[in-house]
Amino acid sequence: MAAAKKKTRPTATLDTETARKIWLAGVGAYGRAFDNAREQIGKLNDDAGSYFEDLVARGEKIENDAYGHLKSNERLNKVAKRATNLTERAEHAAEQQREFVEARMATLRETLEMPLGVLTLGRKIRSLSAQLDEVAEDVAEIKATIKPAKKTTAKRVPKATAKRTTKRAAKKTVKKTAKKTARKSR
């Protein structure tokens, strides 16, 4: 048994050492790739400015050629002028229609004597209804947290006092009614 234990230890050490070397090889590969990428980015940064300038110069040349061809084409110029004219006329007509509709709506409102607020009344009612629902929920929550008050017993008023109070109130009512009747008969 002692011999078997000695054989497993070097294998375990060998396995961990191999695993460590594999891991270090992976880290080294990552480091090399990182260095290569950094070099490539550096080269691109150096070349990017000149490459961009070349593209801008090429774009300007193409733009100038295109404008030159378009300006020399008389038919195209006539079509462009006509399109601009039609666009202006359409915008003018749309503005006139908008003004006509607004004037007609104002006349209709005046005819119906409907203030502008009536048109938005439904929206306001829905908003207030939603707010009322929120308040009702809050009241329900408050009621749930409040402890009910202790019941108190009402004090009894002696019958004689109650009768006197009732008789006085009846006399006052009769006097008021009599005065009103006298005024009406005049």
Protein model, in words:
The chain has 5 helices and no strands. By secondary structure, it is mainly alpha-helical. Among the domains are: 19-72; 74-112; 116-143. The termini are far apart.
Which short descriptors sum up this protein?
186 residues, mainly alpha, 89% helix, flat
Secondary-structure topology with pairs:
Layout: H1 2-72, H2 74-112, H3 116-119, H4 121-145, H5 159-185
Which geometry do the CA atoms define? flat
Into which percent range does the helicity of residues fall?
Answer: over 70%
**Strand content bin:** under 5%
How far apart, in Å, are the first and last alpha carbons?
A: 138 Å
Biggest sheet features: none
Quick one: how many beta strands? 0
Average pLDDT metric: 78
Count of runs of 4 or more consecutive helical residues: 5
How much is the radius of gyration in Å?
49 Å
- SSE order, as H and E? HHHHH
- Give the class from helix and strand content and strand pairing: mainly alpha
Which regions have little confidence, pLDDT < 50, spanning 5+ residues? Answer: none
